[in-house]
Design goal:
The chain is an all-alpha fold. Helix content is about 80%, strand content about 0%.
Length: about 150
């Protein structure tokens, strides 16, 4: 469980970094952002470097959060960001600037939505995926149960 204000702070820093990448085309800065996304995706969003800044410098100055949220959706969102950052880094490194900048622009748009409005696009995709997979699983379980009942009868 994580403080829901942390991912918004992380998204604000990510927005700034990606805006600089978009303006400068810096492959190195984008590669560094990819590492930040990788840490958030694999170690958990509460372990990313930006989350550490939030935890040590920002959160102590705030009141405790009203509620906590699951870390799974933000972790998934970090993985999506990682995908866009890797595509952008590779594209910029090999000279496919248009592809690289489009990937950065899409990641920037998602980060900005979270930072400015609290709308985590990657989190929403995660939740939709969970609902779809849950519906498929429950249908499959129901179908198996019905077949088992028919065979037993």
């Amino acid at each position: 469980m994580i403080d829901p204000r942390g991912p918004r702070f992380v998204a604000a820093l990510t927005t700034i970094v990606l805006a600089v990448v978009l303006l400068t085309g810096s492959v190195w800065l984008l590669a560094a952002q990819a590492v930040v996304f990788a840490v958030g995706a694999f170690a958990g969003p509460q372990r990313s470097p930006y989350a550490e800044v939030y935890r040590h410098l920002v959160r102590p100055r705030l009141a405790p959060p009203a509620e906590l949220e699951s870390a799974a959706p933000p972790r998934f969102a970090q993985g999506v960001g990682l995908g866009f950052a890797v595509v952008g880094t590779i594209a910029l490194a090999v000279g496919a600037s248009t592809v690289g900048l489009v990937a950065v622009g899409l990641a920037l748009a998602a980060a900005f939505l979270n930072a400015a409005f609290g709308f985590c696009l990657g989190c929403e995709v995660y939740l939709v995926g969970r609902r779809l997979l849950g519906a498929r699983r429950s249908t499959a379980v129901s179908s198996r149960a019905a077949i088992t009942e028919e065979v037993a009868a």
